[in-house]
Amino acid sequence: MAKNHRSDRSPTGTASRVDPGAVLGRLASGPSRASRITHTEHVPPREGRHAVWPDRIRAEIIAAVRAAGIEHPWAHQARAAEHALDGDCVVVATGTASGKSLAYLVPVLSTLLEGSEAPNGRGATALYLAPTKALAADQCRSVKELSHPLGNSVRPAVYDGDTPFEEREWIRQYANYVLTNPDMLHRGILPSHPRWSSFLKSLKYVVIDECHTYRGVFGSHVAQVLRRLRRLCARYGASPVFLLASATAAEPAVAAGRLTGLPVVEVADDASPRGELVFALWEPPLTEMQGEKGAPVRRTATAETADLLTDLAVQGVRSVAFVRSRRGAELISVIAQERLAEVDRSLARRVAAYRGGYLPEERRALEQALHSGELLGLAATTALELGIDVSGLDAVLIAGYPGTRASLWQQAGRAGRSGQGALAVLVARDDPLDTFLVHHPEALFDRPVESTVLDPDNPYVLAPHLCAAAAEIPLTDEDLALFGPETEGLLPQLEAAKLLRRRTKAWHWTRRERAADLTDIRGGGGRPIQVVEAGTGRLLGTVDAGAAHTTVHEGAVHLHQGRTYLVRTLDLEDSVALVEEAAPPYSTVARDTTSISVLETDVEVPWGDGRLCYGSVEVTNQVVSFLRRRLITGEVLGETKLDLPPRTLRTRAVWWTVTEDQLDEARINPEILGGALHAAEHASIGLLPLFATCDRWDIGGVSIPLHPDTLLPTVFVYDGHPGGAGFAERAFHTARSWLTATRQAIASCECDAGCPSCIQSPKCGNGNDPLHKRGAVRLLTVLLRGAPEEKEEAGPGGVPVREPESAGPSPQGRTAEAGAEARAGAPSATTGPSEGTVPSAGTGSQVPPAP
C-alpha cells in the first residue's frame, strides 16, 4: 500500500484561455438559438493534491519526468505506482486528463530500466494494450519522449497490423515495451508464442488502457484473450502484474477483476486539478417537415452540430465534434467545410473528419494536424475519444448521447486538457433517450456512471478461445479453473464436434486451420467487407461483416474522406462492395423485419397477472428495404425494396407478457393492441442504455400480439450478439426502474400520436406502423402496478444491480442450442439487432537499432 502521501493544496495555476460561458453565449445568440438550450450545468474548478513518488522508483525515471515539466505527481498517481511496485494488480479510475498514463508509466519504466542492466539487456518487459491503433501510436510517441534521456534502456515499439514485416522480428527480439491491441494479441502474438518466448518469460507488467471500453461481447472476448496470455506467461515462468486505466466508472475493481480474472485494487480518488466546465444540453428545433404518419420532426443533430462546429471555427475556438457513426462524422465535416468556405476559403481546410476505417497513413496525417493546431475543428467518431493526448482544445460537441454516462464524460473531458476552462455541448438526436435526457438533466449530472457489463462465460465467446488455447498449448484439467465454470461442460462438446481431441490427460486442437481465426473478438461476424471504387479498383476502406447488410447494401450512400459514393453492388460471397462517386441529395437508412422464438426460459417472475422472463431465444432477421432521407431535414423521399438473405442469431433476451384481464384494465382493445405493444417496445429499447452499458444498436426488440411460445401478448428485448452480451440480463434485473422511465418518457412527450422523440424508431422494419402512444402509456401503467419491489443483488460481472424481490434462483448453467460447431465460431449466418413487430405469429546484450 502507498504510505508516502502528503496532501498539499496547490492552486491549479492555469488561467482559462477562453471563457466557456462567453463562447456558449455567442453560440446561443442567433435567431431562436437561446431556446434550444434546455439546461446548463456548471462544473466548478478543482484544486490538485500533490504527493511524492515511491522511493523505489529509479532516480533516472524521476529526473526524466521532471525534465518533462512534472515536478510532483498527483496523489492518485503516487498511490497507483506504489501498488504496482508491490505487485498488486491495480485499476486507476479517474477523470479525463488526470494523468493515468503517468501513474502506470513510472513504475513500468523504472522496472524496464532495471531489466536493461541484465546480461541480455532485456531482464524485464512490458506489454501495453489499447483498444485502438491510434491510441497505441499516441502512447508510443509519449513513451519515446519521456524515456529519451534514458537512451536505449527503454525500447518501445508498436506491434499491430500496420507494422512493417521487416520491423517485427526486431520487436520480438529486442523491444522491451511493446504496444499493441487485443486483436493483434489474439491473432498474432499468442498463436506465435514460441517466437515471443524471450519477451514473455521476462514479462513484468501488462498495461490495459481505457479498460472501460471492454464491455459486452468485445469485453468478454478480451477477458478470455487475457486468460490465454496469463496461461502462456505461466508456461514461461512469468506472472505479470496487470495495471489498468479506466474512465470514472462504478465498481471499477469488480469490472477489472472480471476482465483479468485476478483480484484488483482500485485507485479512484482523483487528485488532479480541473478547470471550469460549462456543460450545455441542446435540443434542435422542430421543423416544418413531417415524418412518418405526419409526426413532427426536429432538425437533425448532424445538421445542428455542423452549424455549431462552423460557428466555433469562425470564432477560432479549437473544437472536436464527437459523432456516433462514420457517416455522421463525414457529413458534419462536409457541411462545416461548405459553410466555412462561404466565410473564408482558408477556414474550410481547417476542418476535417476522423473515423475508423481510414487507411493508416490517412489517420496518422489527421492526428498530426490536430496535434500541431493546423486543424481548428474535427468531426470524429470514438476512434479519437480514447485517450489520445490532444492538448489545447476549447470545446467539445457531442452529437447524440454516446450510450453511457462514462463515454459522455470521457468525450466532454477532451476539452480543457491543459487545465483551462472548457465548453461541452450535448446535441440531442430526435429519439426517446436523447429527448428524455435533455429534459431530465438529473439523469446525467446527479447519477453515478454505469458499471461495465461483460460475460466471459458466454459459451459462444468461451468455446473458440478454448480451441485457440489448445492450439497454443494442449489444455489440461489444471486449466479449467482459469477459463471459468463453463469450461468443463464445453470441452466434451468441442470434442464431439471434432474441434478438439483428448489424448491421455490433455485436449489438442485437431484441425489444419488456425484456431485463432475461429472468432472475431470485436464481434464482426465474418470477413470485413472491402469497399472498392468500381472505376479505379482503389480500396477505400472496410465495413464489418455484421453491418454490411445495413450500411453497404445496393443503393446505399457511403461517405469516405468527405466524398460521397453510391453502392452499386454488394457481393457477400467475395466480401466486396463496389461503389461509384456520386452526389445524391439524400442519405439512406436500412429497414428490416424480425421474428423470434423462445428456446429456454431461465427465470420467470410474476408481475401481477403478467410475467417478466429471461432466457435464450432465436432471432431471424432480414433487411428488406431502405429509406432515402433528404439531407439536413431528414424528410423521407422514398423507400426501395432489397433482396438480401435472412440471418439467424441465438442470443439472450428479456421479455414480458400481459393477460386479457390486464388488457381490459388498460382499455386496450384488439384494434390498438399491436400499436401499444410496438410503441412500448420501441421506447423501452431507446431507454435501456440508461440502465446497461449498451448502445441502442447493441440491442433489438420484437412485439407480438399473440406469440406462439407464450400464447400471450409479448414484448421481447434481446442482445444483438450471439450468446448474449449481458445487456438483456441487466434489463431483467432493473426492469421496474427501466420500464418506469420508459413510461415517463412516452407520457411526457408533447406530441399527439407519437414521434421520433418518444415511440418512433429509425430502424423499424415495419415503417413505425402500427404505433399507439396513449395505449402504450396505459399498458405500461397496468404492467408496473404488478411489478415487485427491487433489492440490491450482484448482477452481471458481480456488479450490484436492482433485482425483483420475487425473482427465482439465478439462471442455471448456460447452454447454447446452436451446438458446439457454432459456439466455436464456425461459419454461420448471424444478424444484428432490429426493432419491429411480427403481426401474428535468444538475445544478446547488444541491441541493434530498430529498422
Q: Would you write up a description of this structure?
A:
- InterPro entries: DEAD/DEAH_box_helicase_dom, Helicase_ATP-bd, Helicase_C-like, Helicase_put_actinobac, HRQ1_WHD, MZB, P-loop_NTPase.
- One of its GO terms (molecular function) is ATP binding.
- The chain has about 850 residues and is an alpha/beta fold.
- The chain has 5 domains: about 20-45 and about 275-445, P-loop containing nucleotide triphosphate hydrolases (Rossmann fold); about 60-265, P-loop containing nucleotide triphosphate hydrolases (Rossmann fold); about 475-515, no CATH class; about 525-585; about 585-785, no CATH class.
- Strand 6, helix 6 and strand 7 form a beta-alpha-beta unit.
- Helix 2 (about 60-65) crosses helix 4, helix 24 crosses helix 27 and helix 26 packs antiparallel against helix 27.
- The longest helix is centred in the first third of the chain and has 20 residues, at about 215-235.
- Residues about 1-15, about 790-830 and about 840-845 have low confidence and may be disordered.
